[in-house]
Amino acid sequence: MRYVTEAEVARTLTPARALDAAREAMLALAHGTVEMPERHALGADGGAYLVMPASSAEAGLGTKLVTVHAGNAARGLPTIHSLYVLQSAQTGETLAVIEARTLTERRTAATSALAARLLAPPDARVLGVLGAGPQAYAQAEAHLHVHPYRQVLIWNRTPEGARTFVRTLREAGHDAQMVRSPTELAHRADVLSAATRAAEPLIQGARLRGAQHLDLVGAFRPDMREADVAAVRRALVVVDQERAARAGAGDLLQAECEGWPWQVVELPRLVAGTASVARSGVTLFKSVGLGALDLFAARAVLRALDL
């Protein structure tokens, strides 16, 4: 058995490998070759404890154990801690225990980039990111990997976080700027990627221009949302999995309570070519995270390490 550190995951799970793994996971879901029960969630002294299993004859047996404690920032600790246990589907042998914070960030971002490649305006020039935490950095990196955006705009609740994010992007050679509000971001960006812990909508449908793509990854509970009902109403909505969205996609669940008639397309069907959508008007991809994505990302890490 191999113990894989965050540093090893960061080195091996490149944007290209993460994108390939996300695509393989989507195809496995579309073809029914991966088994994945609903995510189990428990309370954990003010936080959340999540258990996400998946199994595939091709990729193996895997379970991710995740804790989410929003108060950790005040303690100088990461909000999310996670481990991934990967076992052989043939023998049950434990192959690896993987530190999974970076794995989670990059598989989430890769799935968003995969969706954007199918849904975003082909001539998109400006990427807008809401948030400045590790997931927001991963989102920007993944989106920039699949499309040549000319500019990246950053909004964050605390300006200092946005300034640091902008500086990092500029050091990587990107034209990056900080904006004053989500409204300004919605006005200027062609693609908006939100990776926040917002409980109240940051993206308002009335502020959207028209041909834009919304990428929402932050709200993973029914009481969280990053876009209002007007934004959801305007959009063609794609989800990573409808069952998972029904359980935890706060943006959509709250919009449904406010009168939006639930109507979604699943990303695996788009990737497999069994469904198609028009890339016009507003499109929206809502991700809540799937165990199959973790499984195929973990396999990609082990392959890169030649294990």
Question: Can you put this structure into words, describing what you see?
Answer:
This protein has 307 residues and is an alpha/beta fold. The protein has two domains: 2-103 and 292-304, ornithine cyclodeaminase, domain 1; 108-289, NAD(P)-binding Rossmann-like Domain (Rossmann fold). 39% of the residues lie in helices and 24% in strands. It holds the Pfam family OCD_Mu_crystall. One of its GO terms (cellular component) is cytoplasm. InterPro entries: NAD(P)-bd_dom_sf, ODC_Mu_crystall, ODC_N. It comes from Deinococcus peraridilitoris (strain DSM 19664 / LMG 22246 / CIP 109416 / KR-200).
Task: Write a compact overview of the structure shown.
With 307 residues, the chain is an alpha/beta fold.
Number of strands: 14
Q: Name the CATH superfamily assignment of the largest domain.
A: NAD(P)-binding Rossmann-like Domain
CATH topology of the largest domain: Rossmann fold
Q: What global shape is seen?
A: globular
| Rg over alpha carbons | 18 Å
Number of continuous helical runs: 12
Query: Order of strands across the widest beta sheet?
Result: 9-8-7-10-11-14-12-13
Please give the CATH architecture of the largest domain: 3-Layer(aba) Sandwich
Main sheet: strands, sense, barrel: 8 strands, parallel
Element-by-element helix/strand order: EHHEEEHEEHEHEHEHEEHEHHEHEH
pLDDT < 50 runs, ≥5 residues: none
Mean pLDDT: 95
InterPro entries: NAD(P)-bd_dom_sf, ODC_Mu_crystall, ODC_N
Protein name: Putative ornithine cyclodeaminase, mu-crystallin
Pfam families: OCD_Mu_crystall
